[in-house]
Amino acid sequence: MNGARIASWASAPLLACCATVGAVRSPRPLYSIYSAETMDRITAMARDGMPDWLEPLLLTLGLGAPVAILVALVLLALPPANAFFRPRTPVEPPWPVRTSTAARPEGSPSAG
Fold this sequence. Notes:
- 54% of the residues lie in helices and 0% in strands.
- It is built from 3 helices and no strands.
């Protein structure tokens, strides 16, 4: 388990940076190869062949990846919670406790 924490702490910042830069950077490196008219035609053909829901999904996933990585790092930084859920030993009270319902102080209301 400790090896996984170390690997996560080592690789997660790099992955978060790459995911952020990938989501922010404009995906248009082909302008250096093709002319503006050809790129407009390629873009129009790609938009015609793509479903309408694909671009918002890719944007959401691209922006959600760095957030998910940061949440994982924060959860790894927190102490483990398994000690909280272990059964605890009962503590004896420092004074005697009455457990019988028959021994009531005088003047207390009774159910009878």
